Amino acid sequence: MIANSQILMMAITGIISLLLPFIFIVILKRKYKIYWLPMLVGAAIFLVFALILEQILHMIVLKPSVDGQIELLNQSPWLYVLYGVLAAGIFEETGRLLAFYSMKRKYKDVGTAVSYGIGHGGFEAIVVVGLGMVNAIILSFMINSSSPVLNDLPIDMDQLVSDQAWYMYLLAIFERIIAMTLHIALSVLVFYAVMKKGKIYYYFLAIILHALANTSAAMMQAGLLDNISLMYASLIIMTLVTVFLSRMVSLNQENII
């Protein structure tokens, strides 16, 4: 049985993930102009480039078996990590690049990048955490009602859901806050790669930073790292480095006319 208190935590976590984009808007609109179109473009680009195109490449390159096994992961986990982080960086930063080129004539200030980052990171939070919590709540009700459907699943869903520690829900929200901050900072770098002549290397810098930020999580997935504290420490450090670099780039640029 899944306790009602745990189901409530799932619901609260899911609701907060839905509210995160609006919380970022309230906080950042004091300093930046927030635009709705770039925000929607950020969400759309994440959907197309990360959830569709990147996944198609994964199917082609990784060729997962029917039971989900991936040969590359088993034979060469480090190569799997390298492929995974570079694929994420290249697809998402290329999406940003094309988005800013398409909006270049109308949206010329850094608020465009901030808005895009909120849309990109906010939509990711909704997909990763929000939908994840919806699935967990549905499973919880199925478990509590002893649904016969659970008998057809290959794993013990009761054990999987009930073993989730309460603080993991807080970590999920914390991780999304860090990830959204990272996406905003990366958006600023790619924005200036487009808006400032001769600064295309900011785009390549964004790819590298994105890949490095994802490395510790990919290592955990590949079984090369089992310390969750180190994983989050690495993510926080790379996010702070990216924020610092994007801030320095922003301060060093002239006003774009």
UniProtKB/TrEMBL annotation:
Keywords: Membrane, Transmembrane, Transmembrane helix. The keyword Hydrolase does not apply. This is YhfC family intramembrane metalloprotease. The chain crosses the membrane at residues 6-28, 35-60, 80-101, 122-143, 166-194, 201-224, 230-249. It comes from the Bacteria. It holds the Pfam family YhfC.
